[in-house]
Structure formats: structure tokens, C-alpha cells
């Protein structure tokens, strides 16, 4: 896994400096609301699972039962309710569903005890079968006593010898070394172990997947078992009889395990720890969410309402305070995907969500919305007697969605190709995976040529796994990685807000790939309402008294509970749509180069001003809203002239930047007549360039009022790719002429239009010539030299 399949990286030391990140919560798919439980990399989660000292009690909140907490809360609400004459317990006792199942398990334990002890080994082993040995991956589950539980290939009873060897290896390491066995490597074969309290899970693989990725699959398998039995029942069974044959309780669950393993190998959702959403217009999705919320608002013991189709989430309505983990949603997807019976009748199914509460069951009403609709609705509650109430709610939901044509919209989205690479409009790009970390959601296009065959799709998935492992390697994690293979060029980019994995044509250069993903990010930002779920409806109207995201949005000086000013973040986001501007500081002076967007042939290019003179020794490049920039430029000019008249000296570049930043933060909802404050943040970023007593100075200021000195800085829509190139080419000894060449070269790479003298502005600020705007002929001469 350390080397990509089918080739070696073009640059093995391609651990590039992290590029200028998209502002937090402004990347595509970001949300200020907590959608799903977002967690770190799978390597961190796997390390916890494999750590012998890690126990469930180390997880905050895992020592108490979440389900019991909800039940207690519902009972308390019922007791205090004036409309209800008696409590839930008095009206309809809610027995402990877990204890009922456990009692049945205990009875079964006593009945089969003698049979277990008298069981005999099979007459022949099958591990010598060529068909069995030709499999690239095997998954085994056995008890700590060595009892077979599950084998992905072959009959467990005919693999007794292998199960015995695996149990002996685990026991030997634990007994003699006081440690836990993690993995064994022999050639291209990996033997990976996940040792839990009462069961042992083993993966034997020749697929090239990394150890953390194989452990992740074993984690899913273990959690699938817990989802069927609950952790409490599993513990109680083996505490009563260590030699118990767990297959008796898992009879029929083999299809869940088989289906889950198939999904983990072909679905990127498991690798990314994220959920794919069904592409829908935001108006349709909101209408679906509002319908479910309104129809379920009086069902106080409903915890989650989940609507999905084709392994994609349509919407999620939840009880405030309780959030679902992506791993639990994956298990729900697998349950629906592997159960055809849900399509023919309403089902009442106990479902344990291990990350939500591994100790007990939620009760799920599971059914498809209609015979002619491919969407499945799950209503999960703590009340085991709520079947008819939920069935009635489901019927009302289905009827209203049909009247509003939502069922038709769902079917159209499911039956269509969904997101295709052609829609993105980036010719070099073949495929990508994009994960929004804050919402634990991801999106990717459909597999098309050249990944339309089974073999090519498996190869692409293998390359994504290799790229993911190298970026998240525990020993040497990377932020940005690019390498070229014989069949593809691969790029991976990990930031605090998103993860992006992309496949390109094999001859694409690193710079072209970075520019391509920047275009991709801009496109996804425009389409995020369709590709992602950005807001979760509460399951009860009682919770709507709390502030929602939109209410925090309206208050420009109101902090959210997370400590954010959303309007400032939106202003920073607006700059990402502006023209690209580049500034480079050298010992001789400063260079400013800015893209001028000519959106119509009828426009007069000379009237578009992206770089302005503040004083004879200071220039300023802007990106964002031009109207806002004029106000700030006027402020800078007034301050510079005032300083000259009062002190008879030129104002320093830093002082000008500070004066403008003071105005930038003077926004709010005040009603005074001073006229000095804005009702919202300024949607503009600025680069102040000048020469003062300290020499050449370059300062960057953003809408938050923060100003920072840089040696080289890029702002605007192409800033990510431009900043990356600046980090590679800049050095302290750079001459002014080199800076001019680099600035226009980088601008040429990130601009969507062909670089010419009419769509770019170029300025230098030096001690000798002070502020100098390049004439059209001078710009043409520079462009000719870099062509």
C-alpha cells in the first residue's frame, strides 16, 4: 500500500505545503448545524479499536444507555403533561426489550449446552480446495474459545483447523506476551486481527488494502453482529457459556454480513466514513423534510426518521440533542439493501445502532413509501408498542408527498444517472470523491468510461484506497499528494473542511490538476444545495423555539453557539467568487497582478479598476464586491492624506492597512446617524502594497478585519492554486523582474480566459518609481516573454 498500484509517484517527496484553505464552513457541503457525527480519519478510529487498553468506558456518554435516557425523558414528560391523565408506564408498560431477548438467549443456551459439548469435527476440511484458496480475501469470525461463527467463503465446520490456528495465535500472544495480536504479513498477504471482548475477527487479504482499511471492514462486521444481538446480549451469552455456538442466534444474518462486506469493497462511503445523498432540488428536499417533521411532530418518542433510496440518504429528521453516526446509517442502508421483504409489507423490526446505543434496541417501522416509489422510510422509536401510530404517520406522509409530486421527483433522481463528470465541465477530470467533513457527507459522479467495467472500477477503487492511506498514514500524514500512473494521474487533498480524491488523464501536470480541482470546488459550491443536506429538521415542533441557522444568519453581530459570525464567513466566501489577485514582495519592490473579467464584448475594459493608487508609495489590489472596495479605498486615501497634512510624512503601509481594517469591522444593526458603519461585513479582500521606511511591504486584509503581512499572497477565485504555486517558486532573493514573470505566469494558469493585455492589470511599487501602472504595451511585452 505504500506504493500506488501500477506505478510509482512522479514525485515521491510530494508532501507539498498545505495550500490556502477554503474558509471553514464555507467549503462545498459545509453546514453550521451538526448533521451527522463527524469523526477524524478512519486511522484514528481504527487505532482506538485495536488498542488493547481502549474500552467502551473511555467513550464519553457510553456508560449510560441513551435509549433508557430517552424513555425516562418521555415518561417524565407524560407525568408532567396536563393533557394526559396518566403516564406512559401506567397506560402501556414498556418492558425492557433487551432483557426479553436475553432471556430467550439464555434458554437457548441451556437447551443446546449438551449439543455444543458433544459436537464433533467435520469429516473433511475444505481449505485445500483451489476455489477456496483462489479468493483474494477471506473474513473469519470465531469466539474466544475457538468456536466458528462466520466465514465469508466456505463452510465454517469444514474450516475447523484454520479457526483453531487463529485462536491459538491470539491466545499465544495474549498469554505469553501480554499483548494483542494486530497483523501478520507474509509476502503480499495480510493477516489482520481485531480482538474484541468475546469474539475474534480475522481478515486474510491479498487485495493490497492497508491494515487500517482491513480493520475498518472488520469493525463494520463486528458492529453488524452487535446490531443484530446488542452488545449487552452478546456479553451475557458468553459470560454464561464461553463455548456457546453463536451461529444459532445469527441464523439468517449471514446475508447481512455478506452484503455488508460487498458494500465495503465497492462503496467509497465506508472508506470515507461518510454518507452519500440523493441529488435533489433543495426545494423538493425541504418539502420532504417538512412533511415528515409535521406529520411526526406529535409522536414524542420518535428518535429518527430516515428516508433513503438506492443506498443514498434523501433526508433525516431527528430528535433534537440526538445525532446519528455515519457507521449506524451504513448499517441501516445495508439492512434495507439486503432485505427484499420490506418492499412488500410494513415491517416492525428491532434495530440496534451500535454507535448510538449498543446496549439496546430501537424499534423500527420500515416500509417503502409506495409500490411505485423506490424510497424506503424508517421511523425509529423507543416505544415497542408504537407500530400502528407510526404506520398511520407513514400513510399520511406518503399521501402528502404524492400530492406535492415529491415521489415523482425521487424516482426521477434514482432512475437518472445522477451526477456525471460531464456536468462538472472539467475535461481533464475523470472521476472524484469529495467529502465535506463537517457534515460527514460525500459525493462522486457515476462510473463512466474508462471506469465502466468491473475490472476498471475495482482498479479505481484500489487507487483511491492507496491514495487515502498515504494521505492519512499515521507515520507521515500528508495534506496534498499528486502522482502519475500508467493509466491515471491521482491527486489527494485533505484540509480541515474537506477531503478530495481525484483521478485525471495520465498526462495531466500537477499544476493543471490543482487548477482543475479548484474549478471543481467552485462548481460544487454552486450545486451544494442539490448534492448535500445542509439542514436537518427537528422531529418535534417543540424544538423549534431554539435558534436555527437562518436566525443566526440574520444577526450580523450575533455569535452562534459555536462562536461564529456567519455573515463574516459568508463575506469571505463571496471573495472566492471574485477575480484572482496576486501580490509578491521582493527586495526591490512589490508586484501586483490582477485578473480583469470582461463579461461582455460591449464592456470598456479600461473602466474596470482592480488595482488603485492609495498614495504615491502605496497601491491596493482588490477582489470581491467592487462597491464595497470603493468605500474602503476612499478610507485609505483619506487616512493617508490626513497623515501627510498632520505629520508631514508618508503614512506607513501597515498603518494604512490598520486604518482600513478598523473600518471593516464597523458593521452592525445600529440606528445611529454617524454613517460610519455598514449594516453587514464588507465583501472584499485587499492587498496593500507599498514601500516605506521599513522597505517593501505587502499586507492582506479580509472581511473579518484581520490584516497580516505576507511575502507573497493570492486572493480571489483562483487563490488556492495560485497560493500553492507561490509557495513553490518564492524565495527571498527573488528579483522584481522575476516576480513580474511569476505573477503573470501563475495568473495565466488559474484564469479561465486566455491571458492578454486587456484582461489583466499589472502594477509595481518601488522606492524609485513609486506606484507604476503598466501600460497596455508594457503588459503585452511581458506576456510575450512568458508565452
TrEMBL record:
Annotated region Disordered: the residues are 1-34, 83-123
- Identify one Pfam family in the record: Fuz_longin_3
Q: Which domain of life is it from?
A: Eukaryota
| Subcellular compartments | Cytoplasm; Nucleus
- Cite the entry's keywords alphabetically: Cytoplasm, Nucleus, Proteasome
Work out whether the entry's keyword set contains Nucleus: yes
Residues of the Proteasome alpha-type subunits domain:
552-574
Any one GO BP annotation for this protein: protein targeting to vacuole
For this record, the Gene Ontology CC terms, alphabetical, are: cytosol; Mon1-Ccz1 complex; nucleus; proteasome core complex, alpha-subunit complex
InterPro entries cross-referenced by the UniProt entry: FUZ/MON1/HPS1_longin_1, FUZ/MON1/HPS1_longin_2, FUZ/MON1/HPS1_longin_3, Mon1, Ntn_hydrolases_N, Proteasome_alpha-type, Proteasome_alpha_type_5, Proteasome_asu_N
Function summary: The proteasome is a multicatalytic proteinase complex which is characterized by its ability to cleave peptides with Arg, Phe, Tyr, Leu, and Glu adjacent to the leaving group at neutral or slightly basic pH. The proteasome has an ATP-dependent proteolytic activity. Plays an important role in membrane trafficking through the secretory apparatus.
Subunit structure comment from the entry: The 26S proteasome consists of a 20S proteasome core and two 19S regulatory subunits. The 20S proteasome core is composed of 28 subunits that are arranged in four stacked rings, resulting in a barrel-shaped structure. The two end rings are each formed by seven alpha subunits, and the two central rings are each formed by seven beta subunits. The catalytic chamber with the active sites is on the inside of the barrel.
What NCBIfam families does this protein map onto?
Answer: PRK03996.1 (NF003075)
Task: Please state which protein family the record places this protein in.
Answer: Belongs to the peptidase T1A family.
Protein name (Swiss-Prot/TrEMBL)? Vacuolar fusion protein MON1 homolog
Amino acid at each position: 500500500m505504500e506504493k500506488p498500484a501500477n506505478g510509482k509517484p512522479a514525485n515521491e517527496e510530494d508532501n507539498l505545503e498545505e495550500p490556502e484553505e477554503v474558509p471553514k464552513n464555507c467549503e462545498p457541503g459545509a453546514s453550521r448545524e451538526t448533521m451527522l457525527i463527524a469523526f477524524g480519519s478512519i486511522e484514528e478510529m481504527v487505532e482506538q479499536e485495536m488498542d488493547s487498553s481502549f474500552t467502551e468506558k473511555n467513550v464519553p456518554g457510553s456508560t449510560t444507555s441513551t435509549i433508557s435516557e430517552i424513555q425516562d425523558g418521555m415518561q417524565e414528560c407524560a407525568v408532567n403533561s396536563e393533557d394526559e391523565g396518566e403516564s406512559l408506564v401506567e397506560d402501556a408498560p414498556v418492558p425492557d426489550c433487551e432483557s426479553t431477548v436475553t432471556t430467550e438467549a439464555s434458554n437457548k443456551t441451556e437447551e443446546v449446552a449438551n449439543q455444543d459439548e458433544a459436537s464433533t469435527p467435520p469429516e473433511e476440511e475444505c481449505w485445500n480446495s483451489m476455489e477456496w484458496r483462489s479468493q483474494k480475501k477471506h473474513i473469519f469470525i470465531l469466539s474466544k474459545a475457538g468456536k466458528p461463527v462466520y466465514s465469508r467463503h466456505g463452510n465454517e465446520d469444514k474450516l475447523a483447523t484454520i479457526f483453531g490456528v487463529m485462536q491459538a495465535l491470539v491466545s499465544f500472544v495474549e498469554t505469553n506476551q501480554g499483548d494483542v495480536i494486530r497483523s501478520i504479513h507474509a509476502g503480499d498477504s495480510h493477516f489482520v486481527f481485531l480482538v474484541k471482548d468475546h469474539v475474534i475477527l480475522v481478515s486474510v487479504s491479498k487485495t493490497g488494502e492497508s491494515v487500517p482499511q482491513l480493520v475498518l471492514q472488520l469493525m463494520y462486521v463486528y458492529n453488524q453482529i452487535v446490531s443484530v444481538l446488542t452488545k449487552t446480549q452478546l456479553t451475557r451469552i458468553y459470560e454464561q457459556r464461553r463455548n456457546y455456538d453463536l451461529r444459532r442466534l445469527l441464523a439468517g444474518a449471514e446475508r447481512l454480513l455478506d452484503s455488508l462486506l460487498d458494500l465495503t469493497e465497492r462503496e467509497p462511503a465506508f472508506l470515507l466514513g461518510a454518507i452519500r445523498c440523493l441529488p435533489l432540488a433543495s426545494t423538493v428536499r425541504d418539502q420532504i423534510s417538512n412533511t415528515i417533521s409535521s406529520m411526526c411532530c406529535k409522536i414524542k418518542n420518535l428518535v429518527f426518521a430516515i428516508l433513503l433510496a438506492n443506498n443514498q440518504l434523501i433526508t433525516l429528521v431527528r430528535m433534537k440533542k440526538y445525532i446519528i453516526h455515519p457507521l449506524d446509517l451504513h448499517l441501516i442502508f445495508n439492512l434495507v439493501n439486503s432485505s427484499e421483504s420490506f418492499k412488500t409489507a410494513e415491517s416492525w423490526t428491532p434495530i440496534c445502532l451500535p454507535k448510538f446505543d449498543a446496549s439496546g434496541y430501537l424499534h423500527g417501522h420500515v416500509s417503502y413509501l409506495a409500490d411505485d416509489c423506490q424510497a424506503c422510510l424508517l421511523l425509529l422509536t423507543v416505544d415497542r408498542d408504537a407500530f400502528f401510530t407510526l404506520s398511520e404517520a407513514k400513510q399520511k406522509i406518503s399521501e402528502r408527498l404524492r400530492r406535492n409530486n415529491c415521489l415523482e421527483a425521487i424516482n426521477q433522481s434514482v432512475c437518472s444517472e445522477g451526477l456525471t463528470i460531464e456536468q462538472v465541465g472539467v475535461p481533464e477530470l475523470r472521476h472524484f470523491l469529495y467529502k465535506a467533513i463537517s457534515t460527514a457527507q460525500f459525493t462522486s459522479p457515476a462510473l463512466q468510461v474508462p471506469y465502466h467495467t468491473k475490472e476498471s472500477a475495482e482498479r479505481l477503487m484500489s487507487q483511491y484506497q492507496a491514495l487515502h492511506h498515504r494521505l492519512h498514514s499515521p507515520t507521515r500524514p500528508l495534506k496534498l499528494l499528486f502522482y502519475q500512473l500508467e493509466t491515471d494521474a491521482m491527486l489527494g487533498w485533505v484540509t480541515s473542511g474537506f477531503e478530495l480524491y481525484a483521478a485525471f488523464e495520465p498526462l495531466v501536470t500537477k499544476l493543471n490538476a490543482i487548477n482543475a480541482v479548484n474549478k471543481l470546488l467552485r462548481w460544487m459550491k454552486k450545486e451544494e444545495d442539490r448534492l448535500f443536506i445542509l439542514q436537518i429538521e427537528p422531529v418535534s415542533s417543540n424544538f423549534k423555539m431554539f435558534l436555527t441557522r437562518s436566525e443566526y444568519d440574520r444577526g450580523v453581530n450575533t455569535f452562534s453557539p459555536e462562536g461564529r459570525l456567519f455573515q463574516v464567513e459568508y463575506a469571505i466566501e463571496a471573495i472566492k467568487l471574485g477575480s484572482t489577485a496576486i501580490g509578491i514582495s521582493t527586495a526591490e519592490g512589490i508586484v501586483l497582478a490582477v485578473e480583469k473579467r470582461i463579461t461582455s464584448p460591449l464592456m470598456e475594459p479600461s473602466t474596470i479598476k482592480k488595482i488603485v493608487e492609495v498614495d504615491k508609495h502605496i497601491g491596493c489590489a482588490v477582489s470581491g464586491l467592487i462597491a464595497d472596495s470603493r468605500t474602503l479605498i476612499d478610507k485609505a486615501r483619506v487616512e493617508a492624506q490626513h497623515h501627510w497634512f498632520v505629520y508631514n510624512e508618508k503614512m506607513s503601509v501597515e498603518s494604512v492597512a490598520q486604518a482600513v481594517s478598523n473600518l471593516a469591522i464597523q458593521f452592525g444593526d445600529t440606528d445611529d446617524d454617524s454613517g460610519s458603519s455598514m449594516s453587514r461585513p464588507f465583501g472584499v479582500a485587499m492587498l496593500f502594497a507599498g514601500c516605506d521606511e521599513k522597505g517593501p511591504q505587502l499586507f492582506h486584509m479580509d472581511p473579518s478585519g484581520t490584516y497580516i503581512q505576507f511575502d507573497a499572497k493570492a486572493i480571489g477565485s483562483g487563490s488556492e492554486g495560485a497560493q500553492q504555486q507561490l509557495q513553490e517558486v518564492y524565495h527571498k532573493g527573488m528579483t522584481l523582474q522575476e516576480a513580474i514573470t511569476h505573477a503573470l505566469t501563475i495568473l495565466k494558469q488559474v484564469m479561465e480566459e486566455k491571458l492578454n493585455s486587456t484582461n489583466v492589470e499589472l502594477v509595481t511599487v518601488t522606492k524609485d518609481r513609486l506606484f507604476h501602472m503598466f501600460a497596455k504595451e508594457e503588459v503585452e511585452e511581458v506576456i510575450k516573454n512568458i508565452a
